[in-house]
Amino acid sequence: MATMGQNNLNAKLVLLGDMGAGKSSLVLRFVKGQFLEFQESTIGAAFFSQTLAVNDATVKFEIWDTAGQERYHSLAPMYYRGAAAAIIVYDITSTDSFTRAKKWVQELQNQGNPNIVMALAGNKADLEDKRKVTAEEARVYAEENGLFFMETSAKTAANVNDMFHEIAKRLPRAQASQNPAGMVLVDRPTEGSRAASCCA
């Protein structure tokens, strides 16, 4: 478990969602400002870190990008346990990926930290002509389930940084009620699990 002082937060953030929804692309766009047209599937999970300045605080995100394939589902709790924030990603051109996103939300609600900051990201917003999930449908779902919602495009960078900034802004408030010192606890997976992750 780690924390820094009042104005420096360490926050574990996990990305969950169906294979091909664009989780890795969102992380690469946020951390490195890059977009790869052909992104290989994540095996197990990949780890990144990125620091943001928000108001008078610095938030260091410890980001776990999980694999979307069903065969890796059983590993997911290892990554979302102790997370301060989660981004559930779906592809706006796939109703199946939206259905899968809802299942992730339910799983986090059932097993996760009750104070977790959850964001719903409708990714691939640049593919408007292939859209299958309306923004309104996703927004209503997010409001009913206590998530905040943004449509993003890792390709064009639309709303990607905004989403992480919004999570960072919500973190101290979410944690403050439980933790007056404003500290975010980080639960690190064991070293054994890191071996299963591919390297950034």
What's the arrangement of secondary structure elements?
Layout: E1 8-17, H1 23-32, E2 45-54, E3 57-66, H2 76-80, E4 85-91, H3 95-111, E5 117-123, H4 135-144, E6 148-151, H5 160-176, H6 191-195
Parallel strand pairs: 1-3, 1-4, 4-5, 5-6
Antiparallel strand pairs: 2-3
CATH superfamily: P-loop containing nucleotide triphosphate hydrolases
- Calculate Rg over CA atoms: 16 Å
Could you state the oligomeric state of the chains shown? single chain
**Residue share in helices?**
25-40%
Summarize the main sheet. Answer: 6 strands, mixed
Q: Order of strands side by side in the largest beta sheet?
A: 2-3-1-4-5-6
Q: How many E-type strands?
A: 6
> Separation of termini?
23 Å
Number of domains: 1
> Which outline best applies?
globular
N-to-C series of helices and strands: EHEEHEHEHEHH
Annotated CATH topology? Rossmann fold
Q: Number of helical segments?
A: 6
Unreliable runs:
174-200
Task: Explain how this protein is built.
This protein has helices at residues 23-32, 76-80, 95-111, 135-144, 160-176, 191-195, and strands at 8-17, 45-54, 57-66, 85-91, 117-123, 148-151. The chain is α/β, with parallel strands linked by helices. Strand 5 (117-123), helix 4 and strand 6 (148-151) form a beta-alpha-beta unit. The chain contains 6 helices and 6 strands. It has one domain (8-193): Rossmann fold (3-Layer(aba) Sandwich). 42% of the residues are buried. Protein transport. Probably involved in vesicular traffic. Belongs to the small GTPase superfamily. Rab family. It is found in: Endomembrane system. One of its GO terms (cellular component) is endomembrane system.
